Amino acid sequence: MRILVLGGTGWLGGHVAAQAVASGHDVTCVARGQHAPTGVALVRTDREDDDALAEVAAQQWDAVVDVATHPGFVRRAVRDLAGRVGRYVYVSSVSVYSRATPEPGADESDALFAPLMADAMRSMDDFGRAKSACERAVRDAFPAAGHAIVRPGLIAGAGDRTGRTTYWPRRFAQPSNPRGRVLVPDAADLPTAVIDVRDLAAFLLVLATGDAHGAFNAVGEPVPLREHLAVAQRAAGRGVLEPVSEEWLIAHGVAQWMGPRSLPLWLIDHADAVGMNTRSNARARAAGLTLRPLERTLADIIAASGPVVEGAGLTDEEERELLAAR
Q: What total number of domains does the chain contain?
């Protein structure tokens, strides 16, 4: 098949392109980056430009996979590629759901945010509405049987520059102190869920090359934070958990979720974690999504090496200071 990846030089798009080539497909990537996977044709362009897709829009494609976030990118893409593409697979997010605290197991029928009318986000506060707008553009341009919308949760694996999924396994593998103590939030039952980037890429190709259509929650299985940390500890083969209260962490300037001086996966508003991490993936599984064990994902992150703090987490010095302050 001829597959067009709008992206392909970044993290998820790169995995999609590489897996597609390995499966024998003819793959072209459209991106600003310079380095596409081996065997992939690269068309370098900037999707900010109105005619960015002119070269590929003059050709026929069996499928397109689009990972864009800005609505303007997707609106122009469907405008230019409608009638040129057999199937359009769009990568959205579970952040499109407007109900922050659904019952565990909520499916794809849950209400979405109103679409963002602007062509670009002003801040991450617009993320859910931007993804909703992108979904609408795809639905409006392609028949029901001609598109699929994938709503991932938190994507995990080596290459996660946000550091949200790499910090814990690397922190256990590379402790900041001789005793191997690892500062963790005392929020044992907080739900977490991650999907390995390789499993998500494989599912996108299943949809691109098959006939399943509609919306799919591509999310990992819910795992309590205590279990996620235990799996990371087991994958590293070392580390001693040092739980501290959420109130203590906030009082000592530790941020939630991501960013500098943070503890990833931790959300003090547990309702937000329920809304993000307990949605049903039954429809995606029925369509061909397969998930590798969490321990394999975290072990592979350790094997790939890399800095403990990359976008999120506590530096060695910060963790040592906090441990000393207990």
A: 2
